[in-house]
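Limitations
The structure tokens in this dataset are predictions for the assembled complex, not deposited experimental models. Users should treat interface geometry with appropriate caution, especially where small molecules or nucleic acid strands are included. An illustrative entry is reproduced here so readers can see what is and is not provided.
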Amino acid sequence: MNEEYNAMELMTIIASRDIEDEKIIYVGTGIPMLVTSLAQKTRNLKITPIFEVGGIGPEMPTLPLSVACSRTTWRALRAADSSEAFEIAQAGFADYAFLGGAQIDKYGNLNSTVLGDYHAPKVRFPGSGGANAFASFAWKTMIIMNHEKRRFVEKVDYITSPGYLDGAGARERIGLPPGTGPYKVYSTKGTFDFDEKTRRMRIFALNPGVTVEDVIANTGFELVIPSKVRDTDPPTREELRILRDEVDPYRIILGRGEA
Amino acid sequence: MEMKILEKGTKFQEPKITPNDFREWVRDKKPRVMKDKVMDAKTAVKRFVKNGDIVSISGCSFVRIPVAILHEFLRQGIRDLYVAGGTRSYDVNMLTDNGRVSHIDPGYIIGLEVLGIPKMTRKIVEQAVTKGELTLTEWDNASMAWRHKAAAMGIPFIPVRHMMGGDGFKYSGAVKVECPFTKEKVVLVPALYTDVALIHVHESDIYGNARITSGAIVEDWGKVRGAKRVILSTEKIIDTEEIRKQPSSTFVPYFYVDAVVEAKYGSHPGNMPGCYYVDIEHFNEYMKACEDMTGKALKEYYDKYVFSVDTFEEYLQKIGGEKKLKYLEDLEFLKVKPGGNSQ
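Predicted assembly:
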């Protein structure tokens, strides 16, 4: 077993440790699938994953390639439709949602739609998918993304999924269900949460070998820095083994961490 | 009591098909007799599709998509389409790659989810948007699902509790109001009635009483029930007696359906839950063609698999025939590992 790990493996493992047992989790496409599957396999959790197009409580024998792929209904409790899946979340059952994105700002607003001018896009991404609804309805939204200055920006080019918008109380003012919002951000540098008063992103814990200065240098906005910052334990051999051998043996997503 | 309008999306427009238009169509055009509707894909597309149609497509991404029908769209030159775009990928890419789409209501477009983003497809969309040849009205998978659902219900809009916190609202056709009952702010999304829905299912009788026997339903109840015309393609044609034995398993009854096309493996290279898995090798070939930013390789891809063949059966031979399809069936049931050999 190679004790070294790439950025994708590190983020996946750290995020998976935070998944709480006996909860309902909305799983977006890509890395969130890895995280959920790893949590199920390492800790034998009794969580209920829900996929936005209808899969409820599947076992996911292999990594799903799409939110609709047959692995998202494999030995599932129910194969519903998209409206039902989103209605369950709108009614308050979504404890957690897992999202990724191309850009994030200090209030946890996420962009997965467009870079540059909307009408003459520099880069067009697939768009919201289920993300806007997840970020609106889930009690706690967890976000996973690579930590780079061009991704952690002062202002996102486009808000696909609402974080705390422009600060405390903004979600409620605009009409989103109260008591919801970003909970944690897992990046290649560390784990971040949001200051209760200002709703600005705050360093929660540092990944192995990362310093506060390193995080600051790679972040395009001012982070809240608490007096005490935790250190995250490196991936264990067992976590790496399960992730590599059982969750993504063909390195479909993990392979991207090598770039 | 009045409902206060708080904000409107900039892409707000009068609906192209209203609930009353739809009711009249249903009264005058939808079948009330169980008659044999079986026809080939070529005939179904010729008879029920026209340029400029608002079209919805079954399944999601590359799962339970009606590829056999979409090949006919390409071969018959169907163009200028208005596409309902909740969770689309390879299906809508086939149309945008070939310049057949003038408008999309996207939830999710271009990307093949875990398999990555095809670069040439993305460039084609970016350029078409910049030139104004392709217009987009931003939605998301939840609002698209509920817009289809509203159409199925025969109503003009449905209130939802998301969308207000993003730029998607600004570029959408939604309206934010104060709820007359609770005083909460809600977003109204308009029903999406379509001209034609292309739906791939597992089983149907010759009249269109159909079943989806495995996998997520996605938005397909709404797509079928809110479409003026429905082309159903099915893995298998079954006897009506089978339907009558188990009515709670019926996905839709015959009167929504206009054409029944038998298309075994009709979702290839996509996944048909309970039948066959994703043909990853084929998608790798497509993704590789999309690496060539001149567009030449992508054109060759479509020439090879769509334009140089006459029927879907011929296409299935080209992608590897029986041996490949057996492998994909085994892969679906975890009887073989990716890249392994079927027994």
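Some entries come with short summary sentences. For this one: Chain B has a mean pLDDT of 97.
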